[in-house]
Write a structure and sequence with these properties.
seven-stranded antiparallel β-sheet; two-stranded antiparallel sheet; ATP binding; Creatine Kinase, Chain A, domain 2; alpha+beta; EC 6.3.2.2
Length: about 350
C-alpha cells in the first residue's frame, strides 16, 4: 500500500478579533521547548502562518487521526501565547504582512516584488509514495486533468482583503501568479522531467528546485509525487478525503502506465482553463470533464473521478468512507460555501474567522 503524508498551512489569529498575528516564531519556540527534536511544525513565508507535516501513513484512519492531533497541538501551542489557529486558505481581513526571517524569503521578496504579498495563502500538499522517478513522472503525466476536481473539493478561500472575490478558491488564483506555478505539458520520461526542472532553475527566475511550484511534481526531499493544488481544508475529514483520492489517482495512474494505457494529451491552455473554472465555481456549477475538457455538472465529474479511482480506493479499504464523505461534502458544501453561509448569518468577516477557528479543530 502506498504511503501518504500531508502538509497543512494554518493561519495564526487572535481568538477574539480574528486578526492574524505574526507570532509563528514564538509558537515554534514553544514547540521546541516541549520537544527539542520536533520536526512536525515549521515556519512559513509569513509570520502569521504555521505549517505542520504528518508522518507517512498507509492507513487513512491513522492519517486522519494524526491530522487532528497536529491541528489540536498547533492550537495548544498557539493558545499558550494568546493565539489561535484557523484552517483558512486566505485571510478574509486586510492585514499588514510580516515576512519571516530567512535568506530564502528575503530573496523571494527582492525577486518578486509586491507580488510576494499574494503568497499569504495556506495550502494543503499531499505526498504519495512512488517506486521510482520513472513511475513518478508517468503518474504526473496522467493525473493532471483530474487535479481541478481536487481543487473544487478542497476550495476554502472565497474572501480576500475584506471582500468576496467571487471565487471559491481565490488562493489558487493568487498562487498562479508565481512564474513556475500551474499545470504542465506531458513529460514522457524522468530524464525529460529533470531536464525541464534544471532548465527552469538555470533561467535564474527561481532560486532552486524547491521553487518549481507545479500543480504536481516529484518531491525534492522524499520518494513521492507531491500534489499541491488543494486549499487547506476547513475540516480535517475533507483533508483525509483529498489525501485518499490523491493516493488513488497515483495508484490508478501507475497501473495505467504499466498496462501501456496512454495519458490524455490536453494542452496546457486547456488545463489552465480547467484549473480556473474549478477555482471560480467549485462544486456549485459545472467542472470541465477531464476526458473531454467540456463542461459537465460538478456532481457528474466527481462521480467520474470516483469511478476512475474506484478499484484503487476499494483495494485500500476506503470505499465506504469516501462515498460517505463525498455525500456529506455535496450536502454541506466545501469550506468556501461554509464561509459564505457564516457571513450571511453573522454579517461579520471577523465572526467568520472565529467560528472557523472552532471548526478547524472539530
Amino acid at each position: 500500500m502506498r504511503t501518504v503524508g500531508v502538509e497543512e498551512e494554518l493561519l495564526l489569529v487572535d481568538p477574539d478579533s480574528g486578526e492574524p498575528k505574526a507570532v509563528s516564531a514564538a509558537v515554534l519556540a514553544r514547540a521546541a521547548q516541549d520537544d527539542p527534536g520536533q520536526d512536525v511544525f515549521q515556519k512559513e513565508l509569513f509570520g502569521q502562518m504555521l505549517e505542520f507535516a504528518t508522518h507517512p501513513q498507509g492507513d487513512m484512519a491513522e492519517l486522519g487521526a494524526e491530522i487532528v492531533r497536529c491541528r489540536k497541538e498547533a492550537a495548544r501551542l498557539a493558545g499558550e501565547i494568546g493565539c489561535a489557529v484557523a484552517a483558512l486558505a486566505t485571510c478574509p481581513l486586510p492585514v499588514p504582512l510580516s515576512l519571516s526571517a530567512h535568506e530564502r524569503y528575503a530573496w523571494m521578496a527582492e525577486q518578486f516584488g509586491i507580488a510576494i504579498q499574494d503568497q499569504f495563502v495556506c495550502g494543503c500538499h499531499v505526498h504519495v509514495s512512488v517506486e521510482s522517478d520513472e513511475e513518478g513522472v508517468a503518474v504526473l503525466d496522467r493525473i493532471g486533468p483530474w487535479l481541478p476536481v481536487l481543487r473544487a473539493l478542497s476550495a476554502n478561500s472565497p474572501f480576500w482583503q475584506g471582500q468576496d472575490t467571487g471565487y471559491v478558491s481565490f488562493r489558487s488564483r493568487l498562487w498562479a501568479r508565481c512564474p513556475s506555478a500551474g499545470p504542465t505539458e506531458l513529460f514522457g520520461s524522468a530524464e525529460r522531467y529533470h531536464r525541464r526542472v534544471t532548465d527552469m532553475v538555470a533561467s535564474g527566475v527561481i532560486l532552486d528546485k524547491g521553487m518549481v511550484y507545479l500543480d504536481a511534481r516529484l518531491s525534492t526531499k522524499y520518494p513521492t509525487v507531491e500534489i499541491r493544488v488543494a486549499d487547506v481544508c476547513l475540516r480535517a475529514e475533507t483533508t483525509v478525503l483529498i489525501a485518499t483520492l490523491a493516493r488513488a489517482l497515483v495508484e490508478t495512474a501507475a497501473r495505467d502506465w504499466r498496462a501501456g494505457r496512454p495519458p490524455f494529451d490536453h494542452s496546457v491552455s486547456l488545463l489552465r482553463l480547467a484549473a480556473w473554472h474549478a477555482a471560480r465555481f467549485g462544486l456549485d456549477q459545472d467542472l470541465l470533464d477531464p476526458a473531454t475538457m467540456r463542461p459537465r455538472p460538478a456532481a457528474q465529474v466527481l462521480r467520474s473521478l470516483l469511478e476512475h479511482t474506484g478499484e484503487a480506493v476499494a483495494l485500500s479499504g476506503d470505499a465506504a468512507v469516501v462515498e460517505e464523505t463525498v455525500a456529506e461534502l455535496l450536502r454541506r458544501g466545501n469550506g468556501a460555501r461554509e464561509q459564505r453561509l457564516l457571513l450571511e448569518r453573522t454579517g461579520s468577516l471577523r465572526d467568520v474567522i472565529t467560528e472557523c477557528v472552532r471548526r478547524t479543530q472539530d
